[in-house]
Design brief:
Layout lengths: L6 H25 L3 H4 L4 E7 L5 E4 L6 H18 L9 E4 L11 E10 L2 E11 L28 E5 L2 E2 L1 H9 L4 H29 L1 H24 L4 E9 L9 E10 L2 E5 L15 H15 L13 E4 L17 H19 L14 E7 L5 E6 L29 H7 L2 E8 L15 E7 L5 E6 L20 E6 L2 E3 L6 E7 L4 E5 L14 H10 L4 H8 L8
Parallel strand pairs: 10-11
Antiparallel strand pairs: 1-2, 1-5, 3-4, 3-6, 4-5, 6-7, 8-9, 9-10, 12-13, 12-16, 14-15, 15-20, 16-19, 17-18, 17-20
Helix pairs in contact: 1-5, 1-6, 3-7, 4-5, 5-6, 7-8
């Protein structure tokens, strides 16, 4: 018999459970060694179902892309247990396998079973982006990788802790295969501490309310999320809708890669079919099935923001993602550039909803993380790997202009501050500014991208690696809005400023001390017809430096000199 809980108890338990995940997030952010976790918050924690691995609760500051992916990750451990592996109190599993619920090799996952009265109650899990996990390229964003072995070491689900006993030999293997073992060691301990705290808080909650009550609450949360999602889908017009977008290239061959979505709505059910997408590619722009599902979840959560973040949301939704496409690959296809592909998948969902429900749509965000690494040796001989991702403009939307210099919709992460990067690495930012005329024109303008210029300070200079996108296909506008500016990368070469042949991807270049790289990120696509934009808003954009006087005249029909 299912227990029925009153609304007040449900609200209290919802807050307590979310607080557990939030405290786990905060613990890792405050203790991690690398800025991508500590400052950028590229991590996530949550509670997961004992037998299915489904997401029960996730922290509010963790990366949204990990919500769906972590459910597959926990299920990978459950599969090991069902196949005969022991699973005991005090165990903690570790892995980074992108084909078994991971994303890419840098995202290290820890999964811990939580027992109550001798019975498995749920799983706690932690994921964080480690700075370096071996492979051919420092930081692991290898734009030329043709198999996963060139991207880093791959760890299947293994026990890092057995019945409370730490397995030091596993850590020795991890350390021996990384350029930055001290950083990884610090991040690993931060993740373990986060799980320890989560277990303590969950034990206290179960002691206060009992297993049956908390179980009933978790079931109620999932059922409510499913009901709300079904209602949202049922309110949309039935039909089949399609949208295509493209990746610049795979880093190996300069050929565009199609990401195609056919979305069907039938009553309170939705099907997302990606069968028309490009086949698996040679370079690292592939993703695994679990990653594709996870980014679809993120896109839908943006469109339906009031639906709770748990697995119930996905019950009325079906996915068709064949392994004959680059969205459902298996090992050893390279997947290190997964961030670029999932952003394009999200864009196709945004694009198709501009047809279905324009009142919910927004212009494409800048839709590339611009994974940039500068690596080399400090003047004291110690090694450094500066990896960072960068901001851009978000799309215009029905309620207003897109955000200037924001982060992508896969993430609640923040862009690492220039001061932190300069303090940690021998680099100097000589420019960090908004990029004028980069946002798509529209009744609601797309946000501006940014300009970053970085100078190498070490005597030996720095090796430079970039894996980005949107250098050939601009972020699109919707409902009549215009496209944004495209991505642009320039570095100081032997013959002066140079752009990569593949536009947004490069490896194996070196800049000397005093030389610079320059990244100009895209803006967001516009929303609505540009000529419908209020003239006073256009003048304000020009005064703020977001739009030039020439663009105000050409795109919006506003003549500043004439005062019109």
């Amino acid at each position: 018999m299912t227990m029925t809980l009153d609304p007040v108890t449900l609200a209290v338990l919802k807050g307590r459970l979310e607080q557990i995940a939030n405290e786990m997030d905060a613990t890792l952010y405050r203790s991690a060694f690398n800025p991508i976790i500590a400052e950028a918050h590229d991590a996530c924690h949550g509670l997961y179902h004992a037998t299915t691995g489904a997401t029960l609760v996730q922290g509010t500051s963790g990366l949204p892309i990990f919500v769906g992916a972590m459910a597959f990750a926990v299920k990978a451990v459950i599969d090991r247990v069902e196949a005969g592996a022991n699973n005991d109190p005090g165990d903690t599993w570790l892995f980074n396998d992108p084909y078994e619920g991971g994303t890419h090799l840098n995202d290290m996952r820890l999964v811990r079973p939580i027992f109550r009265d001798g019975k498995l109650f749920c799983w706690l899990a932690s994921v964080g982006h480690w700075l370096d996990v071996g492979g051919n390229v420092p930081g692991n964003f290898n734009a030329k990788a043709t198999e996963s072995f060139q991207e880093g070491f791959r760890i299947p689900p293994v026990k890092l802790v057995r019945k409370g006993e730490f397995q030091h030999d596993i850590v020795e293997i991890l350390n021996a295969n990384s350029r930055l073992p001290q950083s990884n060691w610090g991040d690993l301990n931060g993740q373990l501490n986060a799980l320890d705290l989560g277990e303590q808080r969950l034990d206290a909650l179960l002691a206060d309310y009992g297993v049956a009550t908390v179980d009933a609450a978790l079931d109620a949360f999932s059922a409510r999320a499913e009901a709300l999602m079904r209602a949202e889908i049922a309110a949309l017009p039935d039909g089949r809708y399609s949208f295509d977008d493209f990746l610049d290239n795979d880093g190996i061959t300069d050929t565009p890669l199609r990401i195609a979505l056919d979305l069907t709505i039938a009553g309170d059910l939705m099907t997302l079919d990606f069968s028309r997408s490009a086949p698996p590619c040679q370079g690292p722009l592939n993703i695994a099935y679990s990653t594709a599902v996870a980014c679809c979840y993120v896109a839908l959560k943006h469109i339906f923001p009031h639906v709770p973040a748990n697995a119930g949301v996905l019950k009325p939704i079906s996915f068709i993602i064949p392994d004959s496409t680059l969205l459902g690959v298996k090992a050893p296809k390279p997947v290190g550039g997964y961030t670029e592909t999932i952003l394009r998948v999200i864009d196709t969902v945004f694009g198709v909803f501009a047809q279905i429900a324009p009142e919910r749509a927004n212009g494409s965000p800048y839709a590339t993380i611009n994974a940039l690494s500068l690596a080399g040796h400090r003047d004291d001989g110690s090694r450094f790997v500066m990896f960072s991702f960068f901001g851009g403009g978000l799309g215009g939307n029905p309620e207003g202009d897109g955000l200037n210099h924001g982060n992508n919709p896969i993430s609640t992460a923040t862009i690492p501050p220039a001061e932190i990067l300069e303090a940690a690495y021998p680099v100097m930012f000589t420019q960090w500014a908004l990029r004028p005329d980069s946002g798509g024109a529209g009744r609601h303008r797309g946000g501006c991208g940014a300009i970053y210029e970085i100078e190498a300070l070490a005597q030996s200079g720095a090796d430079v690696f970039l894996l980005g996108e949107r250098g050939k296909f601009p972020p699109f506008g919707v409902v009549g809005g215009g496209p944004a500016a495209m991505n642009r990368f320039v570095y100081d070469g032997p013959d002066g400023p140079t752009s990569p042949p593949l536009v947004t991807k490069i490896t194996d270049i070196h800049i000397a001390k005093g030389q610079r790289v320059r990244l100009e990120s895209p803006g967001g696509g516009g929303y609505g017809e540009p000529r419908e934009r209020d003239a006073a808003a256009v003048r304000r954009d020009v005064a703020n430096g977001y739009v030039s006087a020439e663009a105000a005249q050409a795109q919006y029909g506003v003549d500043l000199e004439a005062g019109r």
